[in-house]
Amino acid sequence: MEFPYLKSAYSDTKDSPLVYNNEGDIYDKGSNVRIGFDSRAEFGWLSFYFNPEFRYSENDTALKIKRGYGVIQLPYLDILFGKDSQWWGPGYYGGLLLTSNAEPMTMVRLTNSEPVLLPWIFSYIGPLRFNFFITKLEEHRIDFPEPFLWGMRLNFKPLPYIEFGISRTVVFGGEGRPDNNFTGWWKSFAAGSEGRGRSSVSGDQKAGYDIKLTLPFKFQPVQIYLDAAGEDRAGGGIKPIKWAYVTGIYLPRILGFDRFDLRAEFGETRRQWYTNFIYTEGYRYKGIIVGHHMGGDSQDIFAELSYLIPERNGRLSIYYDWEKHRPNSNEPGKKDEIGFKTIFGLTDDLNIKVSSAYGRVKSDISEDVKDQYLIEGMIIYNF
User: Fold this and answer.
1) For residue 305, which phi and psi values (nearest 5 degrees)?
2) What is the pTM of this model?
């Protein structure tokens, strides 16, 4: 089965701050066109997914494999090998450790196809899901070429209305690093201290937890969540420090009006988040942050109101986003963004997506204030 699509976008600036959570696809200034399709195939215990994309802008033309992978399906275990993206945590607008902000990475990933219930007293933690992956970052970095990035995550649901997750990611090794060997693997897995010098081992580590609570009140159901994570501690100790947070609330309907829903989310990161004294390129893949798009030492407030159109399998949303970078400095950077987006079905097989955004952006290194615009449209045909 294939899902061809045509996407067109216009941006009035290159590398627009209005483009994020876009799987690393940064638009050039002017018109941008994307033509692609999704294709899946299954052969018993083996399946494949393929998503090529032709990209055109006024300055470049390229054919790109956006995502593509195979999956070996074993009892209670799926083994993925190939290029894919991940989003960890309950956040809707951003997450701290892994999101779709950067380009999908070529990886090996192990997950359980169905939740499992552990034996004995561990059964009280409820159905359990796990995720482990390992990948290599890009060769052309300003620190060390091709360092490893691996991560693991556990999700469990002890009660029907509450869900927990614990996550950890580590960047280590790379060409020229002393930990680019089995010792480095072990130290990174055992959460060894980062150390104080560039010759130390164990890499750049992050760890955290998240909680999602659903309150199914009959008149007004509510979902609230928290995603929290800390950086590693240089010089000793494994307890994370410099904690960052994403917290949010979701109303699947508003005061009995089933067609409306509302989201609000607040995020905050500390100084040195997404940076590291060893991996000076930062927590990035091909120059783009792997976690929350607001970056380090930043604050973000997001709100979105949506109107559902079920007879057209559609949704109309308006949203507002406010960001502040280096909030404690004399000249903090700021962004105010407002936009709308809609998706609706013209037929059972043909869908249209349209979005537009306006932002007023002030740099944190100058007093310049710029107005920026972004318009996107997408046609999707399913057959």
Assistant:
1) -115, 130
2) 0.92
